[in-house]
């Protein structure tokens, strides 16, 4: 990568684009909504159950100018920026450009990096391996906790105590443990109705 490209990447004018695709949002508050996903490479949070580990190494994904990304996204309404961990990069240029096109900007993030960009919806999904920065908790519209084992319920409550009262609370079974954890989540939500269940419905529907 030459110095000029590095400078543009540092400014968020170019981003390590892994993939972009139009599909149905399968998780959380906007389940069932048509959305255009922009997956940005780079992540050091290191969830062992991550289903897109190929996104971790940003060097595998060529820097793409944000203007091209915006042009590709422009026919759609709801744009979801995901990763990897998208906040490893400056999101201001991309999101302001998307919003200038009248598009809705959503992000899915662990919150482990400084919040940048202009967002209509922030889905915060904290991970034990690299906790969110305190600044993002009051900004989150949705808290999505991945439940891999019983101890994750306690972690979920610890995280829920930090978000605002307006933030939606979701428990989602980790896919490889869904047969074990889903009944436990159902029971937990019935006893703690401030929570809702999130499922990876796109996997049940066999869509991207």
From TrEMBL:
Amino acids binding substrate = 24-26, 39, 82, 208
What domain of life does the UniProt record list for this protein's source?
Bacteria
Question: Which SUPFAM superfamilies is this protein grouped with?
Answer: Radical SAM enzymes
Record-linked Pfam families: Radical_SAM
Residue ranges annotated for the Radical SAM core domain, each copy included: 40-111
Q: Report the record's Gene Ontology biological process terms.
A: tRNA queuosine(34) biosynthetic process
Q: Name one GO molecular function term.
A: carbon-nitrogen lyase activity
What InterPro entries does the annotation carry?
7-CO-7-deazaguanine_synth-like, Aldolase_TIM, rSAM, rSAM_sf
| Residues binding S-adenosyl-L-methionine, per UniProt | 49-51, 84, 125-127
- Binding residues for [4Fe-4S] cluster, per the UniProt record? 43, 47, 50
Class of the enzyme per the UniProt entry, highest EC level:
lyase
Note on how the cofactor is bound: Binds 1 [4Fe-4S] cluster. The cluster is coordinated with 3 cysteines and an exchangeable S-adenosyl-L-methionine.
**Catalysed transformations (reactions):** 6-carboxy-5,6,7,8-tetrahydropterin + H(+) = 7-carboxy-7-carbaguanine + NH4(+)
Residues in the signal sequence: none
**What is this protein's name?**
7-carboxy-7-deazaguanine synthase
């Amino acid at each position: 990568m030459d110095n000029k490209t590095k400078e543009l990447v540092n400014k968020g004018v170019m981003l390590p684009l892994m993939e972009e695709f139009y599909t149905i949002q399968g998780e959380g508050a906007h389940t069932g909504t048509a959305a255009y996903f922009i997956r940005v490479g780079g992540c050091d949070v290191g969830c062992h159950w991550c289903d897109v580990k190929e996104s971790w190494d940003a060097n595998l994904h060529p820097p793409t100018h944000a203007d091209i990304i915006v042009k590709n996204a422009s026919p759609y309404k709801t744009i979801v920026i995901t990763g990897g961990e998208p906040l490893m990069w400056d999101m201001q240029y991309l999101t302001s450009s998307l919003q200038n096109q009248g598009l809705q900007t959503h992000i899915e993030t662990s919150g482990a990096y400084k919040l940048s960009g202009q967002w209509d919806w922030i889905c915060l999904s904290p991970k034990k391996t690299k906790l969110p920065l305190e600044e993002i908790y009051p900004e989150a519209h949705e808290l999505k906790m991945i439940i891999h084992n019983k101890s994750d319920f306690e972690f979920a409550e610890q995280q829920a105590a930090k978000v605002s009262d307006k933030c939606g609370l979701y428990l989602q079974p980790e896919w490889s443990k869904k047969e074990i954890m889903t009944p436990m989540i159902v029971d937990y939500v019935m006893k703690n109705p401030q929570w809702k269940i999130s499922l990876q419905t796109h996997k049940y529907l066999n869509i991207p």
